Amino acid sequence: MRAEVRLQQVAAQHTVAPAHGEADRPKVPVPPGVGEVLVSEQALRARVRELGEAISEDYEGRTPLLVGVLKGAVFFLSDLMREIEVPVEVDFMAVASYGSATDSSGVVRILKDLEEAIEGRDVLIVEDVVDSGLTLQYLMRNLGSRGPASLEVCTLLNKPDRRRVHLPMRYVGFDIPDEFVVGYGLDHGQRYRNLPFVAALERR
Ligand code: IMP
Ligand code: MG
Q: Which residue among 74, 104, 175 is best mutated to probe the pocket of ligand 1, counting the most ligand atoms within 8 A of its Cβ?
């Protein structure tokens, strides 16, 4: 069976139900202001391994360039990279999306660009979460215009209910409900990135 087909099937099974098993219990305390753990440390590790396997299969014989979107994707990317068995390179972009703290406007400014040209490269954008999809849409258009051999997306988290634009996403870790989440790289006001799990921010 082709890897992408298998992955889509896996992705469909990874719609998140809150973690409740003994093994899922967080090893670090859940800080005040942080609510339910949606994706446990164990589930993250297992899914990152599956994504790495699928990417290794799909990119056999090629050397993909992973483009991490700062800062949130760094944590996911560093774990993902170590599960990829083909030669792989990494570069980073930083973008600022105008809008409120929890809503992006689609107007994006590049704060830090790639170090290398990507013409002819197999580029894989690595994101922490795709919410409205507006930031990613901008990135795909921008990087797509630079003539890569291929351009795909790997996002750890996906919020299908929030999507405002159609985007082809080849690799999705987990579909999550319409909640603002923190941990494993994701922040609220720059905090909580260090939590080893993904949890919903408590509503006030
Ligand atoms: P989009 O443009 O609406 O898809 O949002 C893109 C960016 O907003 C993401 O890359 C994150 O940086 C941020 N974001 C969206 N949802 C969340 C969340 O639940 N927690 C933390 N950051 C988020
Ligand atoms: Mg991001």
A: 104
- Over the chain (204 residues), the average pLDDT of each successive run of 10 is 43 60 74 92 98 98 98 97 98 84 75 97 98 94 98 97 93 96 96 97 81
Ligand 1 atom closest to residue 127's alpha carbon, by position in its atom list: 10
Which atom of ligand 1 sits closest to the CA of residue 73? 10
Exactly one of 131, 161, 175, 178 is catalytic; which is it?
131
pLDDT digits (tens, 9 = 90+) for 44-90: 999 999 999 999 999 999 999 999 999 999 999 999 999 999 999 99
Assigned architecture for domain 3-201: 3-Layer(aba) Sandwich (3.40)
Domains in the chain: boundaries: 3-201
Q: What is the DSSP letter of 135?
A: H
- Distance between CA atoms of 184 and 76, rounded to whole angstroms? 7
Point out which residues pair with 152 in neighbouring strands: 124
pTM assigned to the model: 0.89
Gap between the Cα atoms of 133 and 166, Å rounded: 8
